[in-house]
Specification:
Rossmann fold, about 625 residues, Metallo-beta-lactamase, Chain A, 7-stranded mixed beta sheet, alpha/beta, 20 strands, globular, about 15% strand
Length: about 625
Amino acid sequence: MSAQSAATATANERVKTLTLDSTQLYLTALNSTTSTLSFPPIPSSFPPSNFIPNTRFLIDSFRLPFTAFSASYFLSHFHSDQYSGLSPSWSKGIIFCSHLTSLLLIQTLKIPPRFVFALPLNDPVLVDGCEVILIDANHCPGSVQLLFKVPTKNGIFERYVHTGDFRYCNPMKLNSYLIGFVGCDAIFLDTTYCDPKCILPSQEESIDYVVSVVDRIGKEFGKRRVLFLIATYVAGKENILVEVARRCKTKICVDGRKMEILRVLGYGDGEVFTEDESESDVHVVGWSVLGETWPYFRPNFVIMEEIMVEKGYEKVVGFVPTGWTYEVKRNKFAVQTKDTFEIHLVPCSEHSNYDELKEYVKFLKPKKVIPTVGMDFEKLESKHADELRKHFDGLIDEMDNKKDLLMGFHRGNCETVEKVERDANEERVMERNKNMFEMKTVESNDMDVSSNDVSYVHKPDSQDSTIPSEEERERIIEETRDSLPKWVTRDQILDLVSSSRWNIVEAVSNFYEHEIEFYEQVSVFRTFESASHASSPNSPISLSNSGPFRSSTDESVNTNLSQVSKSPSLKLTRWSNISPSKRKKNTEKRSNKKVKSNSKLESSGSKQPTITSFFSKLLPDDSKGGKTDRKN
């Protein structure tokens, strides 16, 4: 073979996608002579945040199964809450992870190497027929996000992003593989800080603070007089330690276990870290030495005093770098003191803060958000999970779920599903024809509109005369509610179904064709409501800060909303079948027509809608987020 041919063959091998069969890898690891394996079905009670749909891929799930359901296990990073359940006796399946994490598993936890398989970063790999890509998670050394492309029927792929634990940063938007997952089917999201109160400073700002305190106090007291204690995990916070060492020109003292981890991470040359206490006044301690961080920080000055006396110092300054110690209403960097002791609470976290979570979801625009922290994992549709997902209303791609929602109305076999799709297409054609007819009608007639009218008055056609019984109406409303976002109010639903001739499929279809308009109207109302409270503290509008309106029949609320609807400063347009571009033309034509008095319009009775027909509930207030589980 010529040199050129050999080079070409090598290049082809390099670009060829690595293909793996987890079952065969597992059988090889077991030294089994069997060529196949069978697993029981994954039970419905298995936490949905720990496995990828339509696969047997289990994520950060080593202590949960009592029976082996799979040979494919993925570990996102080397933190105890993720690898809990692993031990030197592990033999349940193959653990897929990053190269750095594989070293930590083998050298620190003593996992048998034959059960660990390292996957490359930013390089697609086929595992059991699914494309898997690992990208950096910006959490701790070796941490990764997992991207899955899962084949389904008819050559269609489902795409899933599992963030593991991660801290979002702008460079992630530039990752070409992650860009390919924009509009993915679901994101399994690290919701540790999914709370509007958790707006943490950047990691750089927090690190600068620690460095400045060590430098200032160190110069003030001199060497061997003040001891600095920095709390860390077994793996993590290395970026703080390295920067303190570099900028304060000092080594960092760690114990033997921490040094073992640091050697795996490439810090074993003695330039930064040492096990000799006499070489440094900056020591690393375990996470709970300085105090308990959950549910609020409780300092342990007793232990600090014992350490100070034992090591012969005059003063001890501690640092607890975690977002859980962040006190929003106080200084950004809180300090607790007693006698000669200080504990600095540094909001330096490797988890995404609230704004970063929303920015990430906005970028990916998934069809669904699945929380992985801060909820009952076995109840994905629980009230708590819904509260977490509400933070991302308007950011996910609910429009793409429209067909699934329509199909949900018709439970049955495949023929029924196909009929729904045909009906939906026919309805869209009829809708366009109807819009064209209405447009011509509007343009050829002089409409009587009040100068203060902010709504489009729906005039029911002849089919609207058939109104279901009260019981049937309630059934239709409730069934429609199940297929719409949580923020849609009862009166909005009533308007939708009544204007759609009580046809549920048509009502839901109409909603999702105009969803953005509905959401913008709600946003405008919230802005108006906020402004009203700011300008008039004693305003009669009384709205709950964290929940829905009590009811559309609440007299006081209806009265106040009616007053809002008459305000000339709030221009809201009621939903109609006319497209936004056509409606704009209609508005321009109407503005050139002679406008009649308010009295005539008000005398039309029930035909005059108020803003109440849109808002019988408040949107969830972003200032009150769901409570999260403990996670440092």
